[in-house]
Amino acid sequence: MSARLDDTDRAFLRALGEDATLSAGALGRQFGLSQPAAWRRLKRLRDEGILAGRRLELDREALGFGVTVFLGVKLATKGRVSLEDFERAVTAIPEVQVVQHVLGLYDYRLRIVARDLADFERLLRRRIMTLPGVGDIEANVLLSEERRPGPL
């Protein structure tokens, strides 16, 4: 069942998509509502599961991680290795930022950060390729990323 959102709800979501730290008072001032009215609206959006938390966005390059790689992983032996075993092992690697179980040519899509290509190669050889059940892999190095404003 999809939630019913009015124009103010959508405006709140756009504003929070740009700055998730906005308070109910700031949102109320921005959209002509009292602080309590804005707070009730935010509470309803949280209670309905539309607002599912706040995210901290880090600058990976500023932290020394200049390379992002999307890695397609096809498991070689699905019968012998459970998906849960692979997922548990791969999520234990700190450089693996996202693990997605997908339908298609590969079984998993990973988003990995590394300091540079040599660091990624070490990670690939020593950590990823030694995971249980790993068969074929395909690496795509991120060249640039354009983000759309807002959460959707």
From TrEMBL:
A Pfam family it matches: HTH_AsnC-type
Gene Ontology cellular component terms for the protein in this record: cytosol
Coiled-coil segments on the chain, per record: none
Any one GO molecular-function label of the UniProt entry: sequence-specific DNA binding
UniProt entry keywords in alphabetical sequence: DNA-binding, Transcription, Transcription regulation
Listed InterPro entries: ArsR-like_HTH, AsnC-type_HTH_dom, Dimeric_a/b-barrel, Tscrpt_reg_AsnC-like, Tscrpt_reg_AsnC/Lrp_C, Tscrpt_reg_HTH_AsnC-type_CS, WH-like_DNA-bd_sf, WH_DNA-bd_sf
Positions of the HTH asnC-type domain: 5-66
Gene Ontology terms describing biological process: regulation of DNA-templated transcription; response to amino acid
Keyword Protease: no
Transmembrane segments: none
DNA-binding in keyword set: yes
PANTHER family listed in its UniProt record: LEUCINE-RESPONSIVE REGULATORY PROTEIN, TRANSCRIPTIONAL REGULATOR AZLB
Protein name: Lrp/AsnC family transcriptional regulator
Organism (species): Maritimibacter fusiformis
